[in-house]
Amino acid sequence: MKHHDRGLKHFSLSVIWLWLIVFALLPFCLVTLASFASHDDTHLLKLPLTLANYWQLNNAIYVKIFKQSFYIAGTCTLICLLLGYPFAYAIARMKHRFKGLLILFIIIPFWTSSLIRTYSMITMLKPKGIISSALMWSGIISKPLPLLFTDTAVMIGLVYNLLPFMVLPLLTNIERLDNRLIDAARDLGANRITTFRKIILPLTMPGILSGCILVFLPAMTIFYIPDLLGGSKSILLGNLIQNQFLIAQNWPLGSAISVVFTLLLAILLLIYWRSTRDKENRDLL
Amino acid sequence: MKNLPVTSYLTGIYLFFYIPIIVLVAYSFNDAQYSLVWHGFSMRWYHELFQDGDLWIAVMHSLVLGVAAATIAMCVGGLAAISLFRYQFFGKRLLNGLIFILILSPDIVMGISLLILFSLLQVTLGFWSLLLAHITFCIPFVVVTVNSRIVSFDQYIFEAAKDLGATDTIILSRIILPLLWPALFAGWLMSFTLSIDDVIISYFVAGPDFEILPLKIYSMVRLGVKPEINALCTVMFCLTLLLILISQFALRKKP
Amino acid sequence: MIRIVLAVIVVTSSLIGSVAFANENTLNIYTWSGVIPDFIIRQFEKETGIKVNFSTYDSNEIMYAKLKADKNPSYDIVEPSSYYIDRMRRQDMLETLDKTKLTNYKNLNPAFMHQAYDPQSSYSLPFIWGITGIFLNKDYFPSNSIKRWSDLWNTKYVDQIMLLDDSREVFSMAMRVLGYSANDSDPEHIKEAYLKLKTLLPNIKIFNSAPISILIDEDAAVGMVWNGDLFKAKKENSQLEFIYPKDGFVIWVDNFAIPKNAPHRENAYKFLDFMMRVDIAKAVALDNNFPTANLAAQKTLPTEIRDNPTVYPSQDVLRLGEFQTDIGDAALALYEKYWERLKMGG
To answer: Cα dist. C134→A273, B156, C224, C231, C331 in Å?
Structure first.
């Protein structure tokens, strides 16, 4: 019996370890190593090891893109939160018989291919597309609105794609909210704003944070949204990394950007981790 | 409808979600070669869509890749979740941490790191590189899904089974798997969807022999030369809708 | 339960097997987007029984990077522009062509052979050529209101211009505006061109190299375009106009080549020979609307195309043009460095 036990345990553990080491740990080590490598026309990666790639990042242009990416992803997260919170709240607190159906209708875009939704956004934003045509028909504007291929278009595309990722964790979190706490606060004379600030907001903080992470992380790297909606002017880190690897042929620099980027994210996540350490609810995802 | 502001806000967000999709569906009937502007009703893009052999090969490739990646990820991820739950072993926290990191690491970094790995190991980019990559990014999601279910298990069941002389293998096949299969299925479904939908990671590790649907759609959207893409997107949207409805009904039966 | 798991594993592995070890009689073609129509590929498959994997790119750099990234060669046919033929030839990335296998070689236009980028014409077969010029939409700007590249710098075009997503093309424009050759490789001049382009940035709305729907839907009303694309778009939007810039323009040639150690070389030769057949080259030219490098096919084209000034300009107009040639790796690297900066906004 003992023998059998060990067999299964050893088998499962070695499969998992092997997989994660070869396909997760090793590649990440390789990226780090590649970020110190040099390159030339015939070799994508070669010795000697150098710090030059990191020095290069100190260039004003790269710093600008880093800042811009964090700014755009941050703005996108904020917009998603402002749009998504009241929406999730209203649906979660609803006692309507269609509630299940309404939730289903949020899940549908969540599961629909993000590429397809980005493409549908192109048809909307064209100067001859539906938004411009509708506004012109109603007489609000007289000339077609140049929305497509602007930063605004990228932002709309990002929010449109990522909003469900904000709404769903919020929804689960708010649904679990204990009504008695809110009633108690009201009974004790708290007004709506105080109740929200002192009771609802702290209790839904885990949902807010999960939603923000789920929006913020992809917002910086979905390179195809700026590519399709922004007119190929690289503005996000995702485009920058993709460009280094698949166009400019500079794998070491691309790796260095990825390493710095991952470190910055890790710091952010560490802050999140610390801030929720004491709370029992650390339900990311 | 007692609360007008709330109702109109909800309607607004739902319109934001759905109008672009409805417009897309409408355009799939548009009778224009390159343009996204309305030129009249036509079914010809659906006709062309079903004639396009390359596209269907890409669909088939994506399905095979999705099924294979999801199945293997389900096996490996399921084993990982069960082991993490049942066994004490050296490096357990590290394993947990690794899975967590894998979920949070940006797609693009995973894509390039696998590209570097395959390039150094001289793996030809194509089916195998895609399969390995897809399994890797699906595993953590299976672990999380299975884990959320497994933690609600009663430890005493295993103790009782062990006392009655059950081996680990029997406990796994007679107790754990039957209790766990909804979660495993959910993990499988999630992996399948992720695999079918992935652009970013596949973009780096795909090769010419094995074209998959998301990359095909990406190049069609980017290079914008084929209007049948509207029809394709409509068909895919309807299929997603169908899949969600089926899974909703399936889940509703088993609370 | 175990049985179900086993069944799933068996089904999955047989699926993998059926796909991963599929038919070996294939050909992997990688060309510019929009130059080879699907029906031609299908006809080739039908005639030869070879299964074609057809993918496309929209810049030489992407194609070059893809070939470099994959250690094991996987493409059989690529279609680089002339200056990339030179670069890849020098880096030993191309096969020497065995012309005895190309029975239709005689159909090609000798004007595009034995050029500096491939002196012996031993690596490349010219396929299409064309001109990079200016387009404008008459609904937005008066006809002929633009005469030369330098007009694009006018502030009335703020946030309106489309440029090709192609470093050489965009820099060639700047070089011509500054009065240099489009093939200039002097680092000082390249830097000057970069600074000149920087001042154009406020006017640039979009970089795109597959612009047909953009032209038709008027997402941009003025900018830089390849003549064939414009001709194609004009069929659906008659307001479009092609202009040969008075300050000079680039004439480019795209060529077929076989990458070194391509896995299906024999099939590649069959495809190249097929593409040079008069009936095929004619059908391709009628679909992609670019000037063909197949002289025999060009002669069979309907006169409204053969004499169309947008597709086949007169010798007089062509005198202002300049063939795009290789500028050397150092200059190319410099172009690409500045190009990257430019696309990042300065």
So the answer is: 55, 78, 5, 12, 25
Using alpha carbons only, what angle is made at residue B69 by residues A15 and A14, rounded to the nearest 5 degrees?
Answer: 0
Mean pLDDT, rounded, for B32-47: 78
Chain C residues interacting with chain B (CB cutoff of 8 angstroms):
1-2, 5, 8-9, 12, 15-16, 18-20, 26, 28, 30, 33-34, 38, 42, 53-56, 58, 69-72, 74-75, 210, 212-214, 216-217, 232-233, 235-237
First to last CA, chain A: 38
**Gap between the Cα atoms of B99 and B81, Å rounded:** 10
Residue in C closest to A64 by C-alpha? C344
C291 cis-preceded (ω within 30 degrees of 0): no
Domain ranges (residues) in chain B: 54-224
B68 interfaces chain A, CB cutoff of 8 Å:
no
Range C130-251+317-343 classified under CATH 3.40.1190.20:
no
Task: Name residues whose C-beta falls within 8 Å of residue C24's C-beta, 6 or more positions apart in sequence.
Answer: none
Residues of A within 8 A of C63 (CB-CB) are none
| Contact between chains at C12 and B72 (C-beta distance less than 8 A) | yes
Domain annotation for chain A: domains and CATH numbers:
35-275 (1.10.3720.10)
Q: Are the folds of C22-129+253-313 and C130-251+317-343 the same?
A: yes
CB-based contact C110:C239 (threshold 8 Å): no
At residue C120, the 3 state secondary structure works out as coil
pTM: 0.88
User: Would the CA dihedral through A160, A164, A169, A170 be positive or negative?
Assistant: positive
Distance (Å) from the alpha carbon of C26 to chain B's nearest alpha carbon? 9
The length of chain C in residues reads 346
**Residue written as token pair 């999801």:** B70
B252 pLDDT tier (thresholds 50, 70, 90)? low
Mean pLDDT of B201-212: 90
The structural architecture, per CATH, of the domain C22-129+253-313 is 3-Layer(aba) Sandwich (3.40)
Structure tokens that stand for B18 in this block? 């759905």
Instruction: Write down the residue that tokens 């030839």 correspond to.
Output: C89
Burial grade of B6 (CB within 10 A; 0-12, 13-18, 19 or more): middle
The closest of A33, A31, A35, A41 to A55, measured between CA atoms, is A35
Closest residue by Cα to residue B181 from B77, B76, B78: B78
Domain boundaries, chain C: 22-129+253-313, 130-251+317-343
Q: In the predicted model, is pLDDT for residue A285 greater than 50?
A: no
Q: Would you call B53 and C236 a contact, using CB atoms and an 8 Å cutoff? A: no
Average confidence (pLDDT) over A198-219: 89
Q: For residues C169 and C250, is the Cβ–Cβ distance under 8 A?
A: yes
pLDDT at residue C299, as a whole number: 94
Q: Does A245 sit within 8 Å of C217, measured CB to CB?
A: no
Q: Across the 346 residues of chain C, what is the mean pLDDT of every consecutive 10-residue run?
A: 66 66 80 92 94 89 86 89 91 94 94 89 95 95 92 93 94 96 94 96 91 88 95 91 95 96 94 96 94 95 92 92 85 86 82
The rounded distance, in Å, linking the Cα atoms of A269 and A264 is 9
Write the DSSP symbol of residue B96. Answer: H
Inter-chain CB proximity B208 and C236 less than 8 Å: no
pLDDT higher than 60, residue B255: no
Cβ of A243 under 8 Å from any chain C Cβ? yes
* Interstrand relation of C125-137 and C222-226 (parallel, antiparallel or unpaired): antiparallel
User: Across the interface, which of C5, C18, C71 has its CB nearest the CB of B122?
Assistant: C71
Given the candidates 2.20.25.90, 3.40.640.10, 1.10.3720.10, 1.20.1250.20, the CATH classification of the domain at B54-224 is: 1.10.3720.10
String of b and e for B72-106 (b: at least 16 CB within 10 Å)?
A: bbbbbbbbbbbbbebeeeeeeeebeebbbbbebbb
CB A170 within 8 A of CB A91: no
